[in-house]
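Memo subject: From amino acid sequence to discrete backbone structure tokens
Keywords: amino acid chain, backbone geometry, structure tokens, three-dimensional fold.
Body of memo: The sequence and its backbone structure tokens, given next.
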Amino acid sequence: MTQAVADIGLIGLAVMGQNLILNMNDNDFVVCAYNRTTSKVDHFLENEAKGTKIVGAHSVEELCAKLKRPRKVMLLVKAGSAVDNFIEQLLPHLEKGDIIIDGGNSHFPDSIRRCKDLQEKGILFVGSGVSGGEEGARYGPSLMPGGNQEAWEHIKPIFQAISAKAPDGAPCCDWVGETGAGHYVKMVHNGIEYGDMQLICEVYQIMKEGLGLSHDEMADVFEEWNKGELDSFLIEITRDILRYKDTDGKPLVEKIRDTAGQKGTGKWTGIDSLDRGIPVTLIGEAVYARCLSSLKDERTRASKILSGPKDAKYNGDKKEFLDQLGQALYAAKIVSYAQGFMLMRQAAKDYGWKLNNAGIALMWRGGCIIRSAFLGKIRDAYNTNPELENLLFDPFFQEATGKAQSAWRSVVANAVSMGIPTPALSTALNFYDGLRHEMLPANLLQAQRDYFGAHTYELLSNPGHAVHTNWTGRGGNVSASTYDA
């Protein structure tokens, strides 16, 4: 009879899976490794896992037999049908109270479905976001588990031990919420990551084209920014990338084709925000910027026939403008997070999740791609007021954006004058201005809709009551039925 020796099983021996197993081993947990191609198991045990407590399995049945109860199996396989296939293979060898953890980049509706289906079979399901790439997986990722809460007490010791630690020593892992909440929060994390990267790229283009800085000069600016309020992983790696020289001594970044790929999580965030009616404009623009970058041939043709400003250089004080650029980046970044938390708040309302917003900010402070110093301020904001309506309403962020807005406006205006595209920096400012306007021109828009389609409108004096006007005297008084798209 096979002896139950392992604390957890992990299926999927690609780089993330292998590194997580080694991380768990470092933290004194016995892991049973399995892969559909079983030769990978043998290779892993004979090489990377040699001399460790890691054990292997050559079948799903053997894997489950080697697990201590309640059995805990983590899947790190391609999102979609592969996850469902492994769940089906596992079920005959599991019993009530056992736990299946999906650590891949699954779409949150799949996690909601799996959690519900498995609960009916007595199996506890956890869908967990895992962020930090291969290095994070090896030395401490940010983990965002959600699903069946009964599973948390069993996986908590493992997850919090292997996770990254914030500067104050707190683990970058806490329970997120019910059903698909873990993967939802990971999706929004990735969307914010898209926005952060796009903002940095726009700043880079302004420095390069508008200010004519060398790559080493730009790297120096990012290094300086990383010592202050912009301190973050993405600023840090941007500095390193700009400094990196190819074998001929020239900056490698300049040789990279300017067409960006994407795996879909930013797009999912954008689509979800439209479905929920939440204006997550910055992430949307970041996704569209990648789409525009992929039209390389069309852009090459356009560059030869479409005209722009004659003087595309900044003629003022460069040092002063770089300071403004840093402030604009900081303010836009705040807006990006505010929009992300708005979206999570709405999803929590729609699904009945009790999201721990302060905990989410804490989880993102270390290990993950969007880790940055000011996430501590977001955690403080939600600790002070767990029901905070909007991050921009917190006194710290209210003051920070107010202080930066003059510089922010100057940067966007100068970029427009120089013909340098700033979709993310601009849309962040437009959102900020839209939010702070008590009156928006949607009154005219509603009148237009009623004029051409009898869609009705509400009066300021009587909200909630639909009114239709016969604007031309030719139409009737019958209004169209109302609906929300």
